[in-house]
Amino acid sequence: RWSVDNNVDKGESYPQLSQAADLLKNNEVVAFPTETVYGLGGNAENDDAVRKIFGAKGRPSDNPLIIHIAQQRQLNAFVEEIPEKAQALMESFWPGPLTLIFNMKKGVLSDFATAGLSTVAVRMPDHPVALALLEKTRLPIAAPSANRSGRPSPTTADHVWEDLNGRIAGIVNGGPTGVGVESTVLDCTGEVPVILRPGGITKEQLEAVVGEISVDPALTDEEQAPKSPGMKYRHYAPDAPLYLVEGTREDIQRLVDEKKQEGLSVGVLTTAENEGFYQANYVFACGQREFLETVASSLYKALRHFNNTDADIIFSEMFPNEGVGHAIMNRLMKAAGHRVIS
Ligand code: TXA
Ligand code: MG
């Protein structure tokens, strides 16, 4: 079992990549960086490899995986047909943080990878290490986020190590990822594409290319069953209970003071603008509110951060539900188990 090496070079010449590619070809599972979060890769055509992914993560078997490819033509092997809108979106956003759902040709990919569905989720990651690794294997690689099921997704190799050390064959360290939240999952099997999971590519960006885009109603209404199986699980949660606060920073400070008086250790999740304002046991800033991309990029690190403290309760600021803020609020709401104080 080999693992994290901090000296990563992104090029073809990097020997870790050949080693990782060989492990994947031998149906072992290996974590690697993408532009969104680290993925835990395995040969999507092989049942054993895919079972190892589910085993290492402790992931429920009814939650299908995203298939990662390096070349569009790889789609022909396992995708039934490529709708016109999907083609246009691939031209615009691949490689990039957009996962497309297609009707699937049966019998090529492991049924475990697709959880027995007749559709398949595919993306081409925009990361030189991921692309070089995929090129080397020449395989469709199934890769969920490389965290233990339910935990925040990993944005550094250390996060992967924390969660999966001893459970997987290796980690390719490519440094911190950029986008920080997972890809947008878009169902392209109907007339109007539907966002099943908000992510790195925004609704506005998609609409600029193909016009009308709808959003799975389950994303805004807790009562509805989500179309993306993974969206029904509690996810991204730190160990201590997290509450989102709809209000001013003074409101948040009042809540902090109350809890401190009860003898609790209190954490606050904020941004650089307000970091100096709060008087709490732990204050962690993720990015700058003014640039929501920076918040997305360090959100999971922030959620993980509180697990290394003795915080009993965490209060978080909220963010505008638009652009990449849509993905940020979706993840925060799940991490908070939908607990909002207004
Ligand atoms: O950015 C990403 O997408 C990262 C990196 C590693 O590529 N991957 C990732 O995978 O987030 P995972 O497994 O954590 O999330 C995959 C999501 C789940 O919500 C799953 O239910 C959904 O995609 N999904 C996969 N196949 C699907 C399908 N055929 N229909 C609907 N949803 C699907
Ligand atoms: Mg995940």
TrEMBL record:
Keywords of the record: ATP-binding, Cytoplasm, Nucleotide-binding, Nucleotidyltransferase, Transferase, tRNA processing
Entries under InterPro entries matching the protein: DHBP_synth_RibB-like_a/b_dom (IPR017945), Sua5-like_dom (IPR006070), Sua5/YwlC_C (IPR038385), Sua5_C (IPR005145), T(6)A37_SUA5 (IPR010923), TC-AMP_synthase_SUA5 (IPR050156)
Family indicated by similarity: Belongs to the SUA5 family.
Protein name from the UniProt record: Threonylcarbamoyl-AMP synthase
Sequence ranges assigned to domain YrdC-like in this UniProt record: 14-201
GO terms classed as biological process: regulation of translational fidelity; tRNA processing
Chief place where the protein resides: cytoplasm
Sites where the protein binds L-threonine: 36, 68, 123, 143, 183
